[in-house]
Amino acid sequence: MTAGATGGWHVATVVGARPLTRSARELTLSVPGLEASSPGQHLDVRLTAPDGYQATRAYSLAATGQAERADLVVDRVPDGEVSPYLVDVARPGDLMEVRGPLGGYFVWRPGDPGPVLLVAGGSGVVPLLAMLRARRASSSRAPFRLVCSVRGPADAIGREEIDEPTPGVEVHWVFSRESPPGWPTRPRRVADDDLAAPGFTAADGPDVFVCGPTGFVEAAAALLTGLGHAPDRVRTERFGGA
Questions:
Q1: How many CB atoms lie within 10 A of CB 136?
Q2: Most buried among 6, 92, 133, 225, using CB within 10 Å?
Q3: Which residues of the chain does CATH 3.40.50.80 include?
Q4: How far apart are CA 37 and CA 101, in angstroms?
């Protein structure tokens, strides 16, 4: 794939790549002219084939606050046009185009002092990981609770980093198909009990961010509003089909 900057697009060079799971990979891009982003924002990524065919997809930023750099976590989509290239093929030195940072609604800012409830399904953890990284890198003391739902331990993006003990941060994993050895619960879906934690109830008024596949997001949002969270406090970002 090759790239040439036009309009609002920037030429990005891959400068780092590391696998995170059997299907996910983190790419670090050097992007001259790219502005620093906020936790929760995303980039459009455009690839151009030698015959001129172009494909564009949106990817959440996994780390933020640094200009002219982009950290993306990409999960391979079977039969996808862009993600298989980014996960399996792209190497340091390769070029692509990016546009952004984009999005102002699904954003957490380190200056916000209130409690934050993050709910992730699968690779939907990426923008929430950016929020967690931003909190850890700042002087914020906002209470955080991150609920991550994944198929099994092999699919848990960034689990070691996410589980790093941090004062004021709670992490709760839900495994839907395969639990780790010795895990106290059987595989299941996210339920009310996972979301109704002390300090993060509707009465506590947390900012709520939910990200994942469409079906997961709709189900989680329904649980949250059923627990009394005001719909306008539940921000959602989804991907894929229903």
A1: 14
A2: 133
A3: 116-239
A4: 6
Which stretches in the chain have pLDDT values below 50? 1-5, 241-242
What are the φ/ψ torsions at residue 235 (nearest 5 degrees)?
-95, 135
Q: What is the rounded CA–CA span in Å between residue 106 and residue 237?
A: 7
Fold of 116-239: Rossmann fold (3.40.50)
pTM above 0.90, yes or no: yes
Categorise residue 111: left if φ over 0, alpha if ψ from -120 to 50, beta otherwise.
Answer: alpha
Q: Which residue has the tokens 């894929």?
A: 240
10-102 is classed CATH 2.40.30.10: yes
Tens of pLDDT, residues 48-106 = 989 999 999 999 999 998 899 999 999 999 889 999 999 999 999 999 999 999 999 99
Name the segment(s) of the chain with CATH classification 2.40.30.10: 10-102
Residue written as token pair 């409690």: 115
CA distance 161 to 132: 10
Instruction: Output Rg (C-alpha) for the chain, integer angstroms.
Output: 18
